[in-house]
Amino acid sequence: MAKEEKKETPKTCLNIDGEKYKTLLTSKYTDRKKWEEPNPKQFYSQIPGTVLKIYVKEGQKVKEGELMMVLEAMKMKNKIRFSADGVVKKVHVDEGQKIPKDFLMIEME
User: Fold this and answer.
1) Given this model, what pLDDT does residue 3 score?
2) How far, in Å, CA of 10 to CA of 22, rounded?
3) DSSP states of 30-71 as a string?
4) What domains does the chain contain, in order, with CATH numbers?
5) Which positions ≥6 away from 1 have C-beta within 8 Å?
6) Which candidate, 71, 74, 76, places its Cα nearest to that of 97?
7) 51-69 residue pLDDT tens
8) All residues at 6 or more sequence positions from 105 whose CB lies less than 8 Å from its CB, including other chains
9) What is residue 14's DSSP assignment?
10) Cβ–Cβ contacts within 10 Å for residue 93, how many?
11) Residues 91/54, Cβ–Cβ less than 8 Å
12) pLDDT tens-digit profile of 16-41?
């Protein structure tokens, strides 16, 4: 059997309150998904569920607080509302569709 090569563990130096500490970074840390600032014009599902009813269509002008859709999740009917005024650019879901968490549901212009 061939001997497995060890993956080089990255080293770094942390500065905490003026004190320097040498540390090793795990692969879980170095391979993590980088944080991105959310786009306020895109609406993603916060939990998995089933789209029961969609109240908007593409090109429709909407106001903050207006009902976007009803998403059934964990036996609860969640009313999803718009957080800002705008125009619906694209609806990425259909009524009756089951969607996972972090699924793009609606885009605004």
Assistant:
1) 56
2) 11
3) HTSPPP-PPPTTEEE-SS-EEEEEE---TT-EE-TT-EEEEE
4) 42-108 (2.40.50.100)
5) none
6) 71
7) 999 999 999 999 999 999 9
8) 43, 44, 45, 51, 68, 69, 80, 91, 92, 93, 99
9) E
10) 19
11) yes
12) 999 999 988 888 888 898 888 999 99
How far lies 101's CA from each of 7, 18, 44, in Å?
33, 41, 8
Closest CA to 107 of 79, 76, 68, 74: 68
Q: 3-state SS of the chain: helix, strand, coil percent to 5?
A: 5, 45, 50
CB 9 within 8 A of CB 24: yes
Token reading at 57: 């269509």
Angle at 79 between CA 92 and CA 51, to 5 degrees: 40
User: Which residues, 6+ apart, have CB-to-CB distance to 2 below 8 Å?
Assistant: none
pTM, to two decimals: 0.71
What number of residues does the chain have? 109
Residue 8 has pLDDT above 80, yes or no: no
Q: Which residue is it, tokens 């009524």?
A: 95
Q: Which amino acid is at 94?
A: D
